[in-house]
Amino acid sequence: MATKTGIEWTEMTWNPVTGCVKISQGCKHCYAERMAKRLKAMGSARYENEFAPTLHEDLIDLPRKWKKPRTVFVNSMSDLFQEAVPLAFIQRVFETMVATPQHTYQVLTKRSERLLELSAHLPWAPNIWMGVSVEDARVMHRVAHLAATAAQVKFLSCEPLIGPLDDLPLRGIDWVIVGGESGRGARPMHELWVQSIRRQCRVHHTAFFFKQWGGVRKDMTGRLLNGRTYDAMPRRKGIPVVLAT
Predict the structure, then answer these.
(1) In whole angstroms, what is the distance from residue 165 CA to residue 163 CA?
(2) Strand order across the 12-14 sheet
(3) How are beta strands 12-14 and 71-74 bridged, if at all?
(4) Strand pairing of 175-179 and 207-212?
(5) How far is CA 76 from CA 18, 31, 143, 148, in A?
(6) InterPro entries under this entry (predicted)?
(7) Is the peptide bond before 160 cis (omega within 30 degrees of 0)?
(8) How far is CA 90 from CA 19, 36, 68, 176, 220, in A?
(9) Is 223 left (phi over 0), alpha (psi -120 to 50) or beta?
(10) Where are the domains positioned within the chain?
(11) Separation of alpha carbons 222 and 220, rounded Å
């Protein structure tokens, strides 16, 4: 199950795991949960369990078939480091990523404690970018957990940004994505919060990517900040990042 995507900072998604369990306020209006319900209603066999964590063994080796370099968001419909996913399964996903160095993989988790716990058991190749979600100051500890891993490229996803993050510990962090919540019930994101993160990234020479303002109609609010777009990406050693135009 690989799908081209409209997510601005990647090219496609790969979901060897689907479904998740909510653990923090950033999960409140989970887009993946809404999508899973729609896909089940449409009869998708992959979502017969709707949003219950489900492992798809047959999809682990899928990227080995792709020859052209791609930028891939891993488990856009789940969290690879949730407790329902055994270490052996995670290791097999990582083995596939290591075996396909032409691709750049973006892995994102809210389970930073388990990420740190398992870090020593995983092969951190340069093409594996590891990120944590940081929606407000209550989960700032996730950054320290990420920083302590052996990942070679580290990033933060401050989306949905639902509170100020004025003291982000950005040392060793290569990239920060910022975005507002979207869809029904979207909580507001204040410009002051965004500008603060942008300034912090500039001070620490961290790549800054502004994804969207969000809101009920994100297509109406757009993604301009200071009258321009911010699309900075971290550089992968020796290999340019490939993104759809």
Answers:
(1) 7
(2) 2-4, 12-14, 71-74, 104-109, 128-133, 153-158, 175-179, 207-212
(3) parallel
(4) parallel
(5) 8, 10, 20, 24
(6) DUF5131
(7) yes
(8) 15, 22, 24, 24, 38
(9) alpha
(10) 12-221
(11) 6
Say if residues 109 and 115 touch (Cβ distance below 8 Å): yes
Q: Is 183 left (phi over 0), alpha (psi -120 to 50) or beta?
A: left
Provide DSSP, 23-37.
-SGGGTT-HHHHHHH
Q: How far is CA 98 from CA 84, 104, 109, 110, in A?
A: 23, 10, 19, 22
Both tokens of 79, joined, read: 């969290």
pTM over 0.90: yes
- Residue 149, helix vs strand vs coil: coil
Cα 155 to its chain centre, rounded Å, is 9
Looking at residue 235, its amino acid is R
Tell me which residue has tokens 């870090």.
119
Q: Does domain 12-221 have CATH number 3.90.1200?
A: no
Q: What are the tens digits of pLDDT across the range 147-206?
A: 999 999 999 999 999 999 999 999 999 999 999 999 999 999 999 999 999 999 999 999
Instruction: For 5-63, write each residue's pLDDT tens digit.
Output: 999 999 999 999 999 999 999 999 999 999 999 999 999 999 999 999 999 999 999 99
For residue 217, pLDDT beyond 60? yes
